[in-house]
Amino acid sequence: MTRTFFNLLALMLPAFTALAQATADDYIRNGNMKEDQKDYKGALADFDMALKLEPGNVNAYYYRGFVKFQLKDYASAIADYDSAASNDTNDAETFYSRGNAKFEMKDYKGAISDYNQAIYLDPTDAESYYNRGIAKYNIGERETACKDLQMASKLGDKTAEDVMKELCH
Q1: How far apart are alpha carbons 70 and 125 in whole angstroms?
Q2: Span 51-63, average pLDDT
Q3: What is the pLDDT of residue 72?
Q4: pTM of the shown model
Q5: Which of 81, 102, 132, 137 is the 20 to 30 A CA-CA neighbour of 94?
Q6: What is the domain-level CATH number for residue 81?
Q7: How far is the C-alpha of 65 from the C-alpha of 74, rounded, in Å?
Q8: Interhelix angle 58-70/24-36, nearest 10 degrees
Q9: Residue 102 and residue 131: Cα distance in Å, rounded?
Q10: 105 and 71 co-located in one domain
Q11: What is the Cα–Cα distance from 149 to 50, expressed in whole angstroms?
């Protein structure tokens, strides 16, 4: 009887081990918890592991891009957002975030293009209108910048009202 038990245990052990192994989603959850605690290096390691397990994981690319943005590694953040966007072209947040990274690199036209896509996908996102307005203002498109700030204000962005008073008189 003991021998039968051990044979059965030997057959079942690989199944239990497979269940115990972390998945890409587990690493993403852990990475997000680490990011919340501002442990950016730990978060990056988890997102890297998620991508090792599942190379096309859109969420892993997006969140890794977010952490790289926090670390001010904007070029790498853009590369990760590119990967996320190429696998999911309908996520407004990815385009908004990539626009923010381009904005930080002073690529205002590239940022505007991404904010345009974010607004197309989510026309109620006040932050995309606000950021697009600031980017437009930075390249001298004052009139359309003020229209974007007005729309951001209409959608509830309180900061837009103050900025409009300063820039759009």
Answers
A1: 21
A2: 96
A3: 98
A4: 0.85
A5: 137
A6: 1.25.40.10
A7: 8
A8: 20
A9: 11
A10: no
A11: 38
